[in-house]
Design goal:
It is a single chain. Helices cover about 10% and strands about 35% of the residues. It is built from two helices and nine strands. The strands form two sheets. Strands 1, 2, 3, 4 and 9 form a five-stranded antiparallel β-sheet that branches. A four-stranded antiparallel β-sheet has the order 5-8-7-6. Strand 7 and strand 8 form a beta hairpin. The radius of gyration is 19 Å and the shape is elongated.
Length: about 150
């Protein structure tokens, strides 16, 4: 009698994934797709940090697991140079001149090439309207819990 191997696909470099995932730090969830529709992404395109992608390699379709990543591993250490003041004049040029910025707000900025965006969190607003942004990833320098459920692998 011959047995037919029905091994499930596993995550490889460059795999295209459909998955649910949750990234959380000490203060709670930063991203959680379990309550909504699953995410689709390709490994190696920068959508997930390299440390997180490494944890996915070799996992089989259908796997649901949780990884604990030590502080700084998932998104690097906090970099004080990533905190920068942005003049109100520039904020007006990039966005709505009537926008009010509050501590804790997250603002999307276009990348210099205009092809993408990156986020900055408002840390402080000066009387002259200048805004101090923290461009570090919100989980930089923190331990991260990464929970994943692999729905499909192509």
């Amino acid at each position: 009698m011959t047995s037919i191997s029905t091994s499930l696909p596993t995550v490889q470099p460059g795999s295209f994934l459909t998955l649910h995932y949750r990234l959380a730090g000490p203060a709670g969830d930063v991203i959680n797709t379990f309550t909504d529709k699953p995410a689709t992404l390709s490994l190696g395109t920068g959508e997930l940090s390299p440390a997180v992608e490494q944890r996915l390699l070799g996992l089989a379709e259908g796997t649901r697991t949780t990884f604990e990543l030590p502080a700084g591993e998932a998104f690097g250490e906090r970099n004080p140079d990533m905190q920068q003041w942005v003049a109100r004049k520039l904020m007006n040029e990039l966005g709505d001149p009537d926008e009010k910025y509050n501590v804790g707000d997250v603002v999307q900025f276009p990348t210099p090439d205009g092809q993408g965006s990156y986020a900055g969190a408002v840390m402080q607003v000066r009387d002259d309207g200048a805004v101090l942004f923290d461009f570090n990833h919100p989980l930089a320098g923190q331990p991260v819990t990464f929970e994943v459920q692999l729905i499909g692998i192509l």
